[in-house]
Amino acid sequence: MPKVVVNTTPLIALANIGKLDLLKQLYGEIYIPNAVLWEIKSEPAKSMVIPTKLFGRICMPGYSPGNLTKEVRERVGYDCRVVLPPSHDTASAVLAIPSGNENTCYISSGTWSLMGVELDRPDCSPESRKADLTNEGGYGGKITYLTNIMGLWMIQSVRNKLAPDMDYGQLCEKASREKISSIVDCQDDSFLSPDDMVTAVQDFCEKTGQEVPKTLAQIAAVIYNSLAKCYADKLKLIENRTGVKYDRINIIGGGSNAGYLNELTAKSTNTTIIAGPSEATALGNILSQMISDGVFPDVGKARECVRDSFKVRKYDQEQKES
User: What is the pLDDT of residues 272-305, one digit of tens each?
Assistant: First the structure.
């Protein structure tokens, strides 16, 4: 198990809610520097104790805290048992991946793209940190080990300015006809929250000596191709950390409907893309409730139901959709 050096903040926060044992569950060896011990014992630290009533109980996904309170029952007109889903939307989406393979790479694609895999234990190595990979809690004690990518925020911003009435299917089709080869770094800070995304893309291309896109279709093509390249780069980082070669990527979320981007991703990553379902977060929420209720005995059967219930699209390296 990994070793970790802990500072004052998580110790105080977890102690306040009686959950210091979470550290031991996640890490094999925990080192507390003398300076941290001194801070915890100091008077200022003692005065930082926060009323525990402000915190909810930390529970794992699938846990049921009980039924609705009387006040809520009276307001909604019915009663039901409450089941906690994975509370991060990406963790719920990952639960709904229609894959029977444990070694599955995924992209939760929307305004942001979160690309990663499921691990049994967190990877807290310096190499993982340098690769911008993070560990988040998932369903069944799994770790959603992932990296955050700019995602379709760039396309959304460009469309909203130049063609707010055009649907994304049309935009994908127009972009697919363009031959422009310019690539931007989707992770560059200039694309985080620019005043004008169109200008930001054009300026990056000009500064890097590439063809500057002029039309909506050209700008969209540059963004889609840049995202696909970013996915390929991140896949290599993930494979280096896990030691696993992934031949398939499951793209879930609203961005799974971007057919042109799926084709480019299949080509750039040299993998087969399985696209869908688009409402993966809602499905993962429901699945966690159904597993708790005994409808499915485990995650494998729940994901099997997703495969059987929702149409997914497959894109291979030759860019053929099936």
Answer: 999 999 999 999 999 999 999 999 999 999 999 9
- Whether 115 and 231 have beta carbons less than 8 Å apart is answered as yes
Across residues 198-223, what is the average pLDDT? 98
Question: How is residue 212 annotated by DSSP?
Answer: P
CA distances from residue 275 to 77, 117, 119, 265 in whole angstroms, order as listed: 39, 16, 22, 11
Q: Indicate if the pLDDT at residue 229 is higher than 80.
A: yes
User: Which spans in the chain are helix H?
Assistant: 8-16, 21-26, 34-41, 43-46, 70-76, 89-95, 126-130, 153-162, 168-176, 197-207, 216-242, 259-269, 280-292, 299-309
Task: List pLDDT tens digits, range 186-204.
Answer: 999 999 889 999 999 999 9
Q: Based on the number of CB atoms within 10 Å of its own CB, is 5 exposed (0-12), middle (13-18) or buried (19 or more)?
A: exposed
How many other CB atoms are found less than 10 A from the CB of residue 139?
Answer: 23
Query: Which active-site residues does the annotation give?
Result: 89
Tokens at residue 112, please? 């942001």
Distances, alpha carbon 11 to alpha carbons 48, 123, 178, 248, 318, in Å: 12, 20, 54, 40, 52
How far is 218 from 227, CA to CA, in rounded Å?
Answer: 14
Interval 3-23: pLDDT, tens: 777 887 788 778 777 778 888
3 φ/ψ angles, rounded to the nearest 5 degrees: -100, 150
Residue 295, both tokens: 């409808």
Structure tokens at 160: 């909203």
CATH, domain 88-322, list 3.30.565.10, 3.30.420.40, 3.90.190.10, 3.40.50.620:
3.30.420.40
